[in-house]
Design brief:
Blueprint lengths: L6 E3 L4 H11 L3 E4 L5 H6 L7 E4 L9 E4 L2 E5 L4 H6 L1 H6 L1 H7 L5 H6 L2 H7 L5 H8 L3 E6 L2 E6 H4 E3 L2 E2 L6 E8 L5 E8 L9 E10 L2 E10 L6 E2 L1 H7 L6 H8 L16 H20 L2
Parallel strand pairs: 1-3, 2-3
Antiparallel strand pairs: 4-5, 5-10, 6-7, 6-10, 8-9, 11-12, 12-13, 13-14
The protein binds flavin-adenine dinucleotide.
């Protein structure tokens, strides 16, 4: 199918994009890489009157130091996340997960901001951002505000972005010494969406787990933080046995979907197994 008719603007600044969005009201939509929005337009599941293309805004692209954080522009592509040296040095979990998104063509066009704003619970990067305790920066007609990743995802394909707001950047804490990480993704075929994914971070100290953080992909209508696992792992021995025991509660509080790729019970099983593997790899045991 071809999309329904729409107007199109390609502003040259974030301020101009915000004005264009405000002018278009409820029927205006941002487009970045188009990797999620274009299929929806073609299926006529979305039919905005106006598309505001932020694809030319250099100020939204790239990775910079921001004290003990990295500031990643919303329009930074998956390809850049995989190859950026600052991300590799300070936040390797993000590059590892971005490398599992789709195929090279999608990774060259798709953006971090688009993945987060789209808020598909099967997307790989939302769970990673939640596990990293990142902060999202949004700008709109009433100025700029910061949204903790844990409060950004509201429901299936729904975020706390207000109408007229543009996601401009993501502030990610730099992982200091002692941290290890792993993104475990279980998919039907290479380059496919996650049936379940697990983003794990472990900080080791003196042979023990000082802190663990776990985000789950596709285990509910939003990315889920596996708090029961985190509590069980904290203070435990950094051993395979202890981490697998902590992972046994990975499905606690989740509401996994049922679809052609798996029933909820199957996903619960996957979450426990993958969390064990991800924690072990992150802890280096
Ligand atoms: C064949 C294929 C396979 C895929 N496989 C995977 C996969 O395995 N894992 C995975 O995680 N994803 C996968 N995806 C999805 C895709 O990678 C991301 O969802 C996509 O990159 C989103 O980024 P985008 O820049 O293309 O966003 P767009 O499609 O341009 O926009 C998506 C949504 O975000 C909004 N938006 C975009 N940028 C902003 C912004 N700066 N501020 C506010 N709102 C904004 C748009 O209005 C729209 O609602 C796949 C996509 C395709 C086509």
């Amino acid at each position: 199918m071809i999309p329904a008719k729409f107007d199109y603007v390609r502003p040259s600044s974030v301020d101009a994009a915000i004005s264009a969005l405000a002018g278009g009201g409820d029927d205006a939509k941002v487009i970045a890489g188009g990797q999620s929005l274009l299929p929806l337009l073609r299926l006529r599941l979305a039919y905005p009157d106006l598309l505001v293309d932020v694809g030319g805004l250099a100020e939204l692209r790239g990775v910079t130091h921001d004290g003990d954080h990295l500031l990643i522009g919303a329009r930074t592509t998956h390809y850049q996340l995989v190859h950026d040296p600052l991300i590799a040095e300070h936040c390797g979990l993000l590059s590892e997960a971005a490398a599992t998104v789709a195929d090279p063509a999608v990774r060259h066009r798709g953006t971090l901001g688009g993945s987060l704003a789209h808020a598909d619970p099967a997307g790989d990067l939302p769970a990673v951002i939640v596990a990293l305790d990142a902060t999202l920066i949004a700008r709109g007609p009433s100025g700029e505000r910061e949204i903790p990743a844990g409060g950004f995802f509201v429901d299936y394909l729904t975020t706390s972005l207000e109408p007229g707001e543009i996601l401009t950047g993501i502030r990610v804490p730099k992982l200091g010494p002692g941290w290890g990480y792993r993104y475990e993704k279980f998919h039907r075929t290479a380059q496919a969406w996650a049936i379940v994914g697990v983003a794990a971070l472990v900080r080791r100290s003196n042979g023990q787990v000082a802190e663990a953080r776990v985000g789950l992909t596709n285990m509910g209508s939003v990315p889920v933080r596996a708090t029961a696992v985190e509590a069980a792992a904290a203070g435990a021995q950094a051993s395979a046995e202890a981490l697998r025991a902590a992972a046994a509660s990975a499905d606690e509080g989740t509401q996994p979907p049922a679809d052609l790729h798996g029933a909820p019970d199957y996903r619960r099983h996957l979450a426990r197994v993958l969390t064990g593997r991800a924690l072990e790899a992150a802890a280096g045991v």
